Amino acid sequence: MSKSTISSDPQNKAAENGIANTSGALIAAFAPLYLAGVSLTSYLTSPNGILERTVYTLLDVSIPGGTIPHDRLIPAMSALYVFFTFGATGAFSAAGQAMARPTGLDNSNPRQHLHQLRGLPNRLRSAHYNLLENFSGFALAAGLTQTLAPTNAQLINLLGLHALVKMFVYYPAYLLDVPPPRTLAHVLATSALINVLWRLALGAK
């Protein structure tokens, strides 16, 4: 078989591009679900609903110092979410690395052994990193809402939905290695942020 024949074989061409399973490309069709989820997040975050009461209760319990003014709910929510994303799950990720090595955490070179992580230690790290990767979207949506519509109940509820789903559904499902709720939680949380930005673009106050 000539070299030209080999290079013209679609399977060989795919392999040269690092593709081992061409059917994996079908997962890209999942993208429209993020837009389809916008309507669902609107329904779930209607003002004066159970989610709004859940968000308010969680903030009152978590943030010391008395009742939070309505126009300061977003900074309060952000404080809780920053703690969870950078502090709590960061500590759990480091604990996972320590559990994965007989000599414990290598604090001098903590990232040197990441490629060796397996099982729960790897999920602890991966879940933490996913929260970090997605935090910029929350930060953008929260910052714009605080600037343009700081007392809009539905926007606050949507931001709360994102944080609640990420903290109490996505993260536990990741650690327990239960993919379906983890994936659905990620889609719902991302749709909530898309919804916030779209509503702001349409003039929400």
TrEMBL record:
One cellular component GO annotation, for this chain's record?
A: membrane
Would the keyword Cell inner membrane turn up in this protein's UniProt record? no
Q: Which UniProt keywords apply?
A: Membrane, Transmembrane, Transmembrane helix
The record's subcellular location field reads: Membrane
User: Pfam families given for it?
Assistant: MAPEG
Q: Which residues cross the membrane?
A: 21-44, 73-95, 155-171, 183-202
The name on file for this protein is MAPEG family protein
Recorded source organism is: Vermiconidia calcicola
